[in-house]
From TrEMBL:
Chief location bin: membrane
Any one GO CC term of the record: plasma membrane
Subcellular location, record wording: Cell inner membrane
Membrane topology annotation: Multi-pass membrane protein
Domain Major facilitator superfamily associated: 8-358
A Pfam family matched in the record: MFS_1_like
Membrane-spanning residues: 12-32, 44-61, 73-89, 95-114, 135-152, 158-178, 199-218, 238-259, 266-286, 292-314, 326-349, 355-377
The protein, known as: MFS transporter
Record-linked InterPro entries: HcaT-like, MFS_assoc_dom, MFS_trans_sf
Alphabetized GO MF terms: lactose binding; lactose:proton symporter activity
Keyword annotations from UniProtKB, A to Z: Cell inner membrane, Cell membrane, Membrane, Transmembrane, Transmembrane helix, Transport
């Protein structure tokens, strides 16, 4: 049935693929802590994963473009993820755990970007909203996060290996039913990838995106700590993430109503302003319940920003370079920002407190927003000149 319905197959794959991410982000740190690892050792494990992903994501994107297949690369990545999960839960030596973690993250960090790349291409081919497909990943993250909370409350987080391996196997089996996306007729080589990094307009786009996505990643790292700082508890942390990811899923699945592909930068400007307002509001909050209410803005800000960014990127790149471009964007918008945001954000949080951190995040979002306004004006001027010359 799934092979005959490529959109349903893809949606189910995205749901369970994001479920892997949910278990890794939400519960793998708790599993390590339960096994006696220190917070610094756990932090190093995930920092290593981010660093590996920074290298791995463009590599897998290039391989996808070079061999003109997203599906087969996803199949390979999931086999690597399964091997990585098996090793992580078998090893007790910290050094070997880091080695297994590096292997796992080499594959795992490519899964979501490749999945989004396939979803975008399939959505364009079938002339449906990318968000309506991508939302299934957000639903998967939210649903599995909430369900896992109840499960581990009864069974204990030490049983993480079984659900994590089960979900990964299901995701792999679903990946075999996927329909591959069409790609350009031209093969990509390393020289063309080098030209990609010399494109001044794209580099400016990446830089401005960095200023805004940096704040998104800093918030991911410290929102739970900030909630505790103003009087929250573990239960509220669970609801905080559920509200945020659920709002994201709702915005994405309804994107066919509100998103128009003609002016993607306009959406990024709107999202930038919303991010700025959101961070200022959080900086003034002293009541955990109000923070939970504002968390609904998480999905609104991210969905609008991400939809605009992906749409612009795919318009700016030739089809044979889209996987590479997508992976480079993800490395900049999520991996580099996570490394910088987690380190510098932690120093600011410790030295000056949560409100100062969020006010500085508002400043960063505002810089990116103003930059995109100027970027949009320049693009419109360039198009007018081209029309006159044409």
């Amino acid at each position: 049935m799934l092979r005959k319905n490529p959109l349903l197959s893809l949606k189910m794959f995205l749901f369970f693929g994001a479920a892997i991410s949910s278990l890794v982000v939400s519960f793998l740190p708790l599993y390590f802590q339960n096994n006696g690892l220190s917070k610094s050792a756990i932090g190093m494990f995930f920092a290593l994963g981010t660093a590996v992903g920074l290298f791995a994501q463009p590599v897998w994107g290039f391989m996808s473009d070079k061999y003109k297949t997203v599906k087969k690369i996803i199949n390979i990545v999931l086999i690597g993820i399964l091997i990585g999960i098996f090793l992580i839960f078998q090893l007790s030596s910290l050094i070997w755990l880091y080695v297994a973690g590096a292997l796992f993250f080499f594959f795992f960090t490519a899964l979501n970007p490749l999945s989004d790349n396939l979803a975008k291409r399939v959505a364009d081919e079938h002339k449906v909203s990318f968000g309506s497909i991508r939302s299934w990943g957000s639903f998967g993250f939210a649903v599995i996060s909430l369900a896992s909370g109840f499960y581990f409350n009864k069974m204990g987080v030490q049983s993480l290996a079984i659900p994590m391996m089960t979900v990964a196997v299901l995701t792999f089996l679903l990946s075999l039913t996927l329909q591959d996306a069409k790609s350009g007729a031209k093969k990509v080589n390393l020289k063309e990838v080098g030209q990609f990094f010399k494109n001044r307009t794209l580099l400016i786009f990446f830089l401005l995106s960095f200023f805004i996505f940096l704040t998104h990643r800093v918030n991911d790292s410290f929102i739970s700590l900030y909630l505790f700082e103003i009087g929250g508890n573990e239960m509220l942390v669970g609801w905080l993430w559920f509200i945020g990811v659920l709002s994201e899923a709702i915005l994405l699945i309804t994107s066919f109503i509100w998103f128009r592909s003609e002016s993607p930068i306009k959406y990024m400007i709107i999202a930038g302003f919303l991010f700025t307002i959101r961070w200022i509001m959080i900086g003034f909050i002293t009541d955990p319940s109000i923070l939970l209410s504002i968390q609904a803005l998480h999905g609104i800000c991210f969905a609008i920003m991400y939809m605009g960014a992906i749409e612009y990127l795919y318009k700016a790149l030739p089809v044979e370079m889209q996987a590479t471009g997508h992976m480079v964007f993800m490395a900049i918008a999520f991996s580099i920002t996570n490394i910088i945001g987690s380190s510098i954000g932690g120093i600011i949080f410790d030295a000056f407190g949560g409100p100062t951190l969020y006010f500085l995040m508002a400043g960063s979002s505002f810089i990116g927003t103003v930059g995109f306004i100027l970027f949009s004006i320049k693009e419109k001027s360039s198009r007018k000149i081209e029309m006159v010359e044409g």
